[in-house]
Amino acid sequence: MPNYGDPDYWEKRYEEQQGRTFDWLESYESLKPMIKEIIDSSGKVLILGCGNAELGEDMYKDGFRDIENIDISEVVIGQMQARCESMPEMHWKVMDVRDLKYPSNFFDIAIDKSTIDALLCGDNSYINVARMTKEVQRVLKVGGVYMAISYGVPDNRLDHFEWKHLHWTVSYITLNEGTENPHYVYLCRKKEGADEICEANWKEVEENLNEEDEDDLKPDYDDDEDEDRNDEDVEESEKTNE
Ligand SMILES: C[S@@+](CC[C@H](N)C(=O)[O-])C[C@H]1O[C@@H](n2cnc3c(N)ncnc32)[C@H](O)[C@@H]1O
């Protein structure tokens, strides 16, 4: 399996995919009803690890305007900026999801479509995901939602939304249930007091995750089932998109 956790992997992939788009796991069409239950078209939207997916532009065409798209890959941000130059109110920025350059309490929704999956395939995956969730919770308004669309089953994902620095209500919806490629939409709604709880507990979470051997933390995760599913998923969605 490619190293989806390595930024260099993405730079190369996007250079090769120049002129193409590709939506991992799900398109806007299938997510639209859920997104519209959370925000109306005036909502402030952050797309985490946007890649060359059409999600942002499809939302724009559907009336959303206040959309920030970020990705660690300079190549893909350049490509998407050029592709969407007729959509001036939508912004594209090179940014790391673990270090967001936005004010606190700013967004109504943060959409992560398989970026958590990519981080979990890399080195230091647990602490990287914890840093991302810390930042995402910070930039969300109270009542705002982190929406993570993932191939990862709840047993392999829910723990990441329940570390002590996080204070949000977590639920999930299963898409394509009963098929070979189910996907999960995790919804984390920021609660009152989250910023204070994060401030009080982050150091402890960070120390624990830095100290722990990741293999001890994730007895099941390295079982090939999850990783194989990723490859199957990629192949499946590449077929669907081409
Ligand atoms: C599996 S792709 C998903 C792309 C897109 N969200 C979609 O649905 O098609 C993961 C994306 O996360 C980006 N990424 C990986 N690590 C990142 C980081 N630390 N900060 C920002 N983006 C990152 C990659 O460049 C890639 O575009």
Automatic annotation (TrEMBL):
The keyword Methyltransferase applies. One of its GO terms (biological process) is methylation. It comes from the Eukaryota. Residues 48-146 form the Methyltransferase type domain. PANTHER family: METHYLTRANSFERASE TYPE 11 DOMAIN-CONTAINING PROTEIN, SAM-DEPENDENT METHYLTRANSFERASE SUPERFAMILY PROTEIN. Belongs to the methyltransferase superfamily. This is Methyltransferase type 11 domain-containing protein.
